[in-house]
Amino acid sequence: MPGHKVRQMMKAERDLAEKRFRREKNKNLLSTPGIHQCMIVLDHLKPTFNIGKIFRSADVFSVHQVHLVGIDFFDPAPGMGAFKWVPAMFHRNFFQCYTYLVNQGYTPFVLEPDKGEMICDIQLPERSAFIFGHEEFGLSFDPSLYPDIRPLTIPQYGRTESLNVSIAASITMYEYARQHNRGQNGGFSPK
Fold first, then answer.
1. Coil/strand/helix, residue 178
2. Average pLDDT, stretch 11-24?
3. DSSP labels for 6-70?
4. What is the DSSP letter of 188?
5. Is it the case that residue 174 has pLDDT exceeding 90?
6. How far, in Å, are 17, 68, 171, 173, 191 from residue 182 at the CA level?
7. Among the residues of 93-190, which ranges form H helices?
8. What CATH number was assigned to the domain covering residues 3-179?
9. What is the mean pLDDT of the chain?
10. Domain ranges of the chain
11. In Å, how far are 46, 77, 169, 185 from 50, measured between CA atoms?
């Protein structure tokens, strides 16, 4: 297939994704915070399938909010409708998001492979905010400039360097929900 045809198809897909986003963003305005006090921060992620999937997991684990830093739009389709259920806050830059979270009493954690404590080895504070960077380029800021940010890692045993960001976010939300279970009899409670 000639290059210009591929670019036309990619532009058409992007236009459809932006249209879906605008329609779903209006529904998001009516969303309510989840039962868990944790926040998810997505720092300059690609507008493809990962963000939608993270919203889907955020709904499953009933997180309070998802914060999007430097993200103008994303394709909500992979989230299977979850974008309308989980409150989203949009920030132009990380400092704006960080200030909001710290002022609300949240402990910010950044997840990076092989840095910091293992997520399963510490007690996560009730008000935890988990920061995930761009799939290829990582974080848009230098974490050492923010002394309140604590590094965390997810145990990995194989040879692959890192997890997909939507998988890492899902594991993190699960571990938080496991530690701060709001359900009955040791299980998650139904909606």
1. helix
2. 84
3. HHHHHHHHHHHHHHHHHHHHHHHTT----SS--EEEEES--SSHHHHHHHHHHHHTT-SEEEEES
4. P
5. yes
6. 35, 26, 17, 13, 11
7. 94-103, 165-179
8. 3.40.1280.10
9. 90
10. 3-179
11. 8, 10, 10, 32
